Amino acid sequence: MLDYLGLEADLTTEERMIRDEARRFVDEEIRPDIGDHFEAGTFPTELIPEMGELGFYAPTIDGYGLPGVGDRAYGVLMQELEAGDSGLRSMASVQGALVMHPIHAFGSEEQKERWLPALGTGEAVGCFGLTEPEHGSNPSGMQTRAEKDGDEYVLNGSKTWITNSPIADVAVVWGRDTSAEESPVRGFLVETDRDGVTTNEIHDKLSMRASVTGDIGLDDVRVPEEDVLPGVEGMKGPLSCLTQARYGISWGVVGAARDAFETALEYAKGRDQFGGPIARFQMQQDKLAEMATKITNGQLMAYRLAELKERGELRNQQVSMAKRHNVRMAREVSRTAREMLGGNGITTDYSPMRHLANMETVYTYEGTHDIHTLVLGADLTGIPAFE
Ligand SMILES: Cc1cc2nc3c(=O)[nH]c(=O)nc-3n(C[C@H](O)[C@H](O)[C@H](O)COP(=O)(O)OP(=O)(O)OC[C@H]3O[C@@H](n4cnc5c(N)ncnc54)[C@H](O)[C@@H]3O)c2cc1C
């Protein structure tokens, strides 16, 4: 596996164990069927509890049956899962960073005890509802409303492009609390079997096919007051979850790029044209050298983010830089790897085209490439250029 600057030599025994276990899981449980799942547009839902048993969901949380591993261990885990498929890493990211993380950070003790053990084992599945049909890059414009009625809230609105919504037991829904002054954004834990909740699957995706995506309809949905996340108000609630998930993406996409590179390297050494392996051509070696260098750059960024995060010094703008850089890198690397496989490269028999297609989603979700450009631009100049 490509580790040109020997970064993995610094991993602790625990981090190596997590890496090896995730690699074994991907090799045995994901690689054999992932092409079929991608073609069929399905996620291997039967693996959700096994992923829980293996500690893939929010393993950085300590307590509630969760192991409390370090941020670098979490990054390494995301990298190995995305080497299998971005759909697999998305499942773990949403469950961990976007559902369990806000419950842990902002939830009441009752909410934590009710949900964290069940989500950690994969007995329950969660989803994160922020994006709306009319509000994607600018979620603060959200129209979902929660109106207080006695000791309940009544929710109305619609969310779209929600990973896992059709298979979720609980949705973290972000909406404006119209009963409070200035209608702040609040997080609501909405069980998907409540009256008035619908979750329709979005079909016809040409990217992230091995992942379940849907919408969430909320039509006069009554939610008790105890199901509101008490510890946060305003956009910092959803945005802090996104920083956590983007940290995982910055690591994850390095895995996808590495897998595309390894596939192209092996193919180039085995594929003969003009009397010998295509790996002997300078043009193909140039592609391999470029890919290896780009991936190594991405690895360096990911490892540095982990150091900063473990010290408690990581800024969300630094995460934006790594998400933006590493996703573009993985998109470029998977396209070059696809080229090197010739005609075979466009099939599901090999991973690069699948990774390339997935990168179109990863480039867009969790803040588009453009939005992260604006985040960096504002940080560097002090002048926000969003509007
Ligand atoms: C497969 C998939 C899974 C997803 N999962 C989830 C999920 O689990 N939960 C969730 O809440 N959301 C999820 N999303 C939604 C995702 O976060 C949004 O698609 C994303 O934020 C972009 O919003 P949009 O699609 O409405 O695009 P728009 O905001 O309409 O953007 C369209 C284009 O305009 C550009 N643009 C927008 N504003 C500016 C600006 N100020 N300056 C320059 N360019 C700009 C964008 O970069 C983009 O290129 C998912 C999306 C996909 C595709």
TrEMBL record:
Name of the protein this chain belongs to: glutaryl-CoA dehydrogenase (ETF)
Domain spans labelled Acyl-CoA dehydrogenase/oxidase N-terminal: 12-123
Catalytic activity as recorded in UniProt: glutaryl-CoA + oxidized [electron-transfer flavoprotein] + 2 H(+) = (2E)-butenoyl-CoA + reduced [electron-transfer flavoprotein] + CO2
Top EC group: oxidoreductase
Highest taxon of source: Archaea
UniProt cross-references to Pfam families, sorted A to Z: Acyl-CoA_dh_1 (PF00441), Acyl-CoA_dh_M (PF02770), Acyl-CoA_dh_N (PF02771)
Keyword Transferase recorded: no
